[in-house]
Amino acid sequence: MNAIEVIDKKRRKEELTKEEIKYIFEGFLNGTVENYQMSALLMAIVLNGMTDEEVYALTDVFINSGDVLDLSNISGIKVDKHSTGGIGDKTTLVVAPIVASLGIKVCKMSGRGLGYTGGTIDKLESIPGFRVSLSEDEIIKQVNEIGLAITSQTKNLVPLDKVVYALRDVTGTVESIPLIASSIMSKKIASGADKIVIDIKVGSGALIKTLEDARHLSALMINIGKKYNREVRTLITDMNTPLGKAIGNSLEVIEAVSILKGRGKDTYLYNVCVELASNLVSMALNESLEDARKMVVENINNGQAYDKFMEFVKYQGGEVSKLKVSDKTMIVRSEKNGKITDIDALKVGMLSASLGSQCEREGDLIDYNVGVVLHKNIGDLVNEGDALCTVYLGTKEPAFNPLECFKIETF
Ligand code: URA
Of ligand 1's atoms, which has the minimum distance to the CA of residue 180? Predict the structure, then answer.
């Protein structure tokens, strides 16, 4: 077997065997398969797809490329949540403490921002003192003591995904359902949780652009879960507009706290958080979704979810009271009367990233205190001079006029 034969086979749209998949991907990790060969294979996969059997084989090769977290020293069901990534997506900060406040063990490894989508680890790092890197022993101790830990991925968790993802990022091969399914599910399986909810974001600010692709990804991930005896549920949610009002690390933590305090009820962000949490509670406690929803709402209303968040942040060294946002702000105002018909998630993400809220290039420093807070929703009527959003500035100028994020139609 050699790499060229395997690439050529995928180019001819033939199904690869598990041995071929193992040979070429493991070869890439250990250096016997070159970058350019893996790039060619990835592009052939993007264009020609993979059968379900190929996806299962690839996921297995990914999982076995590194450590698998052993959570057997934590008693009871362990749950995890994942989002395929979106602009303003701070749901983990809300969902994890709600679920943990109901006595369910939440053990979550999170990532940093990818492209223009923010990462939970960057958001948590905006809390002064918060430790994002926990060892396996620390994770187990913390989950046993307070029921919740959120940490960055340990170094040797699915190392093959790290190198393949870095190559996909620079070769235009990120947007592939089979590659996304195996990348996400390998990390979820290796992280050790029993029950997993996955929030598949669809829209302009998401990796997945169509409902059809979202449904395909959903079915694949659920089936991968079954192979490893993990119960997986998925939610398909909108990412055409940013999730919530705040975009930017510390601003998003503040918004998450306000949701946990019961503010923002009936907003889309609140509803998505309640649905994600209810699905986890329903799986972990074997309750109907309706009953789980009641428990979730009750623990937001009685303050227990908020208390759990504060306990968790303190346990990991963070001081919420020291959270800062930039005091250099710019209010962006409408230049006409009309109705807001679009707030483009991708544009808002690009605006926030250009201020320094995430790394645009490897090695960039993050400015945790910058970002955008939206003051209007789609459908709102505005007059000339009305505030549309506040931009929190740091040392960088916005890359474009923030008004470009809004579409306002006049009558
Ligand atoms: N997130 C991942 O972890 N992997 C992908 O391929 C896409 C999103």
Answer: 6
Q: Give the nearest ligand 1 atom to 187 CA.
A: 3
- From 83, 200, 207, mutation site for ligand 1 pocket: most ligand atoms within 8 A of C-beta: 207
Rg (Cα) of the chain, in Å, rounded? 21
In this structure, the strands spanning 371-374 and 246-247 are antiparallel
Contact residues of ligand 1, CB 6 A cut-off: 84-85, 165, 179-180, 183-184, 207
Residue-wise pLDDT for 203-258, tens only, equals 988 989 999 999 999 999 999 999 999 999 999 999 999 999 999 999 999 999 99
Domain spans, the chain: 3-49, 78-321, 329-409
Q: Report pLDDT digits (tens) over 76-89.
A: 999 999 999 889 99
Please count the CA atoms within 13 angstroms of the CA of 360 that sit on its side-chain side: 12
Contact partners, residue 409, CB within 8 Å, separation at least 6: 338, 339, 341
Q: Which two tokens stand for residue 241?
A: 């507009």
- What residues are labeled active site? 82, 161, 168, 183, 187
3-state secondary structure of 197: strand
Q: For the CA atoms of 266, 240, 338, 271, what is the dihedral angle to 10 degrees?
A: 0
- Ligand 1 pocket test: pick from 59, 110, 174 the residue with the most ligand atoms within 8 Å of its Cβ: 174
| CATH number for region 78-321 | 3.40.1030.10
CATH 2.60.120.760 fits 329-409, yes or no: no
